[in-house]
Amino acid sequence: xxxxxxxxxxxxxxxxxxxxxxxxxxxxxxxxxxxxxxxxxxxxxxxxxxxxxxxxxxxxxxxxxxxxxxxxxxxxxxxxxxxxxxxxxxxxxxxxxxxxxxxxxxxxxxxxxxxxxxxxxxxxxxxxxxxxxxxxxxxxxxxxxxxxxxxxxxxxxxxxxxxxxxxxxxxxxxxxxxxxxxxxxxxxxxxxxxxxxxxxxxxxxxxxxxxxxxxxxxxxxxxxxxxxxxxxxxxxxxxxxxxxxxxxxxxxxxxxxxxxxxxxxxxxxxxxxxxxxxxxxxxxxxxxxxxxxxxxxxxxxxxxxxxxxxxxxxxxxxxxxxxxxxxxxxxxxxxxxxxxxxxxxxxxxxxxxxxxxxxxxxxxxxxxxxxxxxxxxxxxxxxxxxxxxxxxxxxxxxxxxxxxxxxxxxxxxxxxxxxxxxxxxxxxxxxxxxxxxxxxxxxxxxxxxxxxxxxxxxxxxxxxxx
Length: 466
Ligand code: ATP
Ligand code: MN
What we know:
Low-confidence stretches: none
Distance between the termini: 33 Å
Bound molecules: adenosine-5'-triphosphate, manganese (II) ion
Strand content: 15-25%
């Protein structure tokens, strides 16, 4: 490894027990204060929520140089690690040498000190990772992605890359973005006037995927347990704090798992991830708990310490109907639950995460296994406080005839899905899986309340800047 790769970061220096050693610090200046004799420069390199204090004897440095060390500038400091005289930090660096990598004009640098709204910070998504809040969120996002791979690796799952461009418009999970190289101002037409997709890049109409599940099932029918973790796209025009047009989804798919096994996995997986955050991200959690959500850490512990409630959709409807609540959207057997209903069950009624199962078949996807009652399917939605639905999943239909009937109910042509049906023709097996929205998970573990603030570059209706 190069010397630079081995150089201790601010997080390491703050934990370092040695004193009097020479260190090199590289990072961005958060603040500079002081007087005519001494300057205190708070430096952050993204490795921790905490800054490292650099102390510079004004007389030992070029005045012009120190003037350019302003909030937002980037510097290299060589100095001695010593006990800090001030409170608030264990160590500081007594500077011997300062190099300015890049200045930041105080007149135009948008991130002066503090107090910016999250809405304003969204407009400067290229600079917001340099704030405490977004640094914390990004580090936690990394920790969660790492923990997801670790969990699956430790439990015998294989990571499967499913395609982002797909020709199957059958997932039924939401509106799609079309992928085409045709001239949209003047597309080729067939004799009946419709667009001639045989001349398009793939020779047929293609879209960005809304889910990797159908291909995930191919993987499970060979490797037993797989998971995907990749981008998904939904052209749904829903401007909510929980929906993005481009988001990342984790989709495990397991052969031989029935609905019960699927629920056990979802609960164990979510608890593992939250425990991982509590064990590895406490500095960032304490900051977010203090600044945004005073119940955050409590809520995370509550989820890891309690069993999720498992409830029939029918019973859920019963509870909602008898709640005496005035909901904006109607409640009746056969209707889908809205976020307000999901949150009532979780936050007011049970005060625990809820796994709702056995939904009416009409409101769920064609591939979900039909129950013996002929009118419900083995679906499961995991509902969380503050979020509502965090996971959607099901046991899959394996009966070829039933599956074909369900497909024709949805107007899906069997010839378009021949490979999916083949999985039921050759070596079929009971299997199940679910999808976890990565950014919904981040909303929960960070306590942030808008999904635009947990993804680095949000894609939402009328917004694709950066
Ligand atoms: P919702 O009812 O909240 O729109 P959905 O029923 O469309 O969700 P699924 O198709 O089951 O969701 O997708 C699986 C998971 O992906 C959801 O439980 C959620 O965590 C996440 N998810 C779905 N749509 C979005 C979106 N537009 N933005 C971010 N995450 C999403
Ligand atoms: Mn949706």
